[in-house]
């Protein structure tokens, strides 16, 4: 007889991670863009940072939302 113990994450924690990961990744990419483009005018850096935030955050969010367990 073999007993297995499985731990499952709560749905609330999973929903929280689906927000934290894309926002964190987007912010990190925006910060890297701002630091890496120190020689560029501030308004162009701002535009690049916003684009990076939206793109990286959007990609991460799309990936995490498409991995729902209920989607065969």
Description of the structure:
There is one protein chain. The chain is built from two helices and no strands. Helices cover 71% and strands 0% of the residues. It has a domain at 22-66. The chain is an all-alpha fold. It has helices at residues 11-36, 42-66. The protein is elongated.
Which features characterize this protein?
2 helices, elongated, about 70 residues, mainly alpha, about 0% strand
User: How far apart are the termini?
Assistant: 32 Å
Helix content: over 70%
Q: SSE order, as H and E?
A: HH
Largest sheet: none
Strand coverage percent:
under 5%
Give me the secondary-structure category: mainly alpha
Rounded to the nearest angstrom, the radius of gyration is 18 Å
Shape: elongated
Number of strands: 0
Please tell me the overall pLDDT: 82
Spans of at least 5 consecutive residues whose pLDDT stays below 50 are none
Number of helices: 2
How do the helices and strands line up, and which of them pair or pack?
Blueprint: H1 11-36, H2 42-66
Helix pairs in contact: 1-2
Summed up:
This protein has 72 residues and is an all-alpha fold.
